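STRUCTURE:
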């Protein structure tokens, strides 16, 4: 099972408050484990504050007003930038061919100057699973999966992202049961 470029949609019975109600984009999933970013949990923080704490001046008001997201419980002090592939290569990047995860300061500087990718999501922290952990959680019906839709990732409606991903599966949130079974 390869879930690169898929969403994990937390089921209503998700007991972990970190992931309850979340939509997580899986950047990488293989025998080594999985790495993803929660894409629908904005923090009470915008990029202007990140630029200032990183001592970047002269930043664009357009990018400075963008929200910062809680990407997950791992490395919460580190910034992760999710974006479509660009012609420019960045110092520290992980790509799954559809989207790129960049952690380098050069990308943050480009975004501050409004010279980075047109569409991006800036997260603090990431979500990680050890080998076999995600597969076990899927067996326990903790998550639904669906191929990721970039329009959902980069839309401004954080609240609607979860519901839109469910809609891609043909599921209405109002009819989703918190109890799963095995066929």
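SEQUENCE:
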């Amino acid at each position: 099972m390869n879930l690169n470029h898929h969403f994990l949609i937390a089921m209503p019975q998700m007991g972990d408050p970190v992931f309850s109600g979340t939509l997580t984009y899986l950047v990488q999933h293989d025998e080594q484990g999985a790495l993803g970013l929660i894409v629908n949990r904005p923090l009470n923080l915008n990029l202007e504050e990140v630029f200032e704490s990183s001592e970047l001046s002269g930043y664009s008001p357009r990018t400075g007003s963008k929200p910062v997201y809680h990407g997950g419980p791992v490395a919460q002090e580190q910034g992760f930038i999710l974006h479509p592939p660009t012609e420019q290569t960045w110092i520290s990047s992980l790509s799954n061919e559809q989207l790129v995860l960049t952690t380098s300061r050069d990308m943050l500087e480009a975004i501050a100057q409004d010279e980075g990718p047109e569409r991006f999501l800036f997260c603090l922290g990431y979500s990680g699973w050890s080998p076999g952990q995600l597969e076990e959680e899927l067996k326990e019906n903790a998550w639904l999966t669906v191929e990721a839709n970039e329009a959902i990732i980069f839309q401004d409606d954080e609240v609607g992202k979860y519901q839109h991903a469910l809609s891609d599966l043909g599921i209405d949130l109002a009819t989703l049961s918190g109890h799963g079974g095995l066929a």
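REMARK: The mean pLDDT is 91.
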